[in-house]
């Protein structure tokens, strides 16, 4: 699972019937400092995420376990919208 940011949408006039009515979004993963990485991926939206929102993304078999994705041909799914987060470094973590 990782945190990413919605940077766009995918419009597909023809797709697998199990994906009909599903929104496909382009997600840019964020690094450990919450800075955007250079790569991106397409994920199926299961939570009605919007443009520029930070989201939680799962991949592989976890994506197929997301709500409504059973037996769907997906490799990435958006499973949450991030409202806020806190990163705490503890002394002695070696970082």
Description:
This protein is mainly beta. It is built from one helix and five strands; from the N terminus they run ββββαβ. The protein has one helix at residues 61-64, and strands at residues 2-10, 24-29, 41-45, 54-59, 76-81. A five-stranded mixed β-barrel has the order 1-2-3-5-4. The longest helix is centred in the middle third of the chain and has 4 residues, at 61-64. The chain is elongated and about 50 Å long. The chain starts with a strand and ends in a 14-residue tail after the last strand. The model has no long low-confidence stretch (mean pLDDT 90).
- Largest sheet, spatial ordering of strands: 1-2-3-5-4
The largest pleated sheet is described as: 5 strands, mixed, barrel
What do we call the CATH topology? OB fold (Dihydrolipoamide Acetyltransferase, E2P)
Within CATH, the superfamily carries the name EutN/Ccml
What proportion strand? 25-35%
Q: In angstroms, what separates the terminal alpha carbons?
A: 22 Å
Looking at the structure, what is the overall shape? elongated
Query: How many structural domains can be distinguished in the coordinates?
Result: 1
CATH class: Mainly Beta
Q: Using the CA coordinates, give the radius of gyration.
A: 15 Å
CATH architecture: Beta Barrel
Helix content: under 10%
Helix-strand makeup class: mainly beta
Give average pLDDT, whole number: 90
Count of distinct strands = 5
- Count of alpha and pi helical runs: 1
pLDDT < 50 stretches: none
């Amino acid at each position: 699972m990782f945190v990413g940011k919605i940077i766009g949408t995918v419009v597909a006039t023809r797709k697998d019937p199990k994906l009909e009515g599903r929104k496909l979004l382009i997600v840019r993963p964020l690094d450990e400092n919450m800075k955007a990485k250079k790569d991106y991926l397409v994920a199926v939206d299961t939570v009605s995420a919007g443009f520029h929102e930070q989201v939680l993304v799962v991949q592989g078999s976890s994506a197929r376990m997301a709500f409504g994705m059973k037996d769907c041909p997906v490799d990435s799914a958006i499973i949450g919208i991030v409202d806020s987060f806190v990163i705490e470094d503890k002394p002695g973590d070696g970082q």
